[in-house]
Amino acid sequence: MTPEELAQSAMKDDQPPLDLTPPARVLWLAKAGEWHEAHEDCQTMQDEKAGAWIHAWLHREEGDYGNACYWYNRADKSPKPQDYPLEEEWAEIAKELI
Predict the structure, then answer these.
(1) Integer Cα distance of 10 and 22 in angstroms
(2) Long-range contacts of the stretch 67-76 (C-beta < 8 A, 24+)
(3) Which helix (H) or strand (E) holds 22?
(4) CB 31 within 8 A of CB 6
(5) CA–CA separation, 32 vs 27, rounded Å?
(6) The whole model's pTM is what?
(7) What is the pLDDT of residue 34?
(8) In the prediction, which pLDDT does 58 show?
(9) Percent share of the chain, pLDDT over 70
(10) Which of the chain's termini has less CB crowding within 10 Å, N or C?
């Protein structure tokens, strides 16, 4: 599944597809507006750096930039500026992780 297909599914389907990888499932949940479930799931991902990157994005979406920066550090990623478009970063994460 491409990042574009994942985003489209999240906008129209009630449930994530069953065959998604853990990062794709968390990104689907985030795109679908299921923040709390995405937040919980990203903390239990086996690929801790991938989970930390998604976690950072979620906290930036939430407006908690300080917490986002902590998670960017855990993911070994440079923090995005606060005004960096969330949609662009979601797409970057999806392209790298799925």
Answers:
(1) 15
(2) 74/48, 74/49, 75/49, 75/50, 76/49
(3) helix 22-31
(4) yes
(5) 8
(6) 0.93
(7) 96
(8) 97
(9) 100
(10) N
In the chain, the N- to C-terminal Cα span, in Å, equals 8
Query: Residue 88 CB: number of other CB atoms within 10 A?
Result: 10
CA dist 70 → 4, 8, 14 (Å): 28, 30, 32
d(CA 76, CA 63): 20
Q: Look-up: residue for tokens 């574009």?
A: 4
Instruction: Kindly report, residue by residue over 52-80, the tens digit of the pLDDT.
Output: 999 999 999 999 999 999 999 999 999 99
Which tokens in the block code for residue 85?
Answer: 């478009």
CA separation for the pair 83, 85 (Å, rounded): 6
pLDDT at site 64: 97
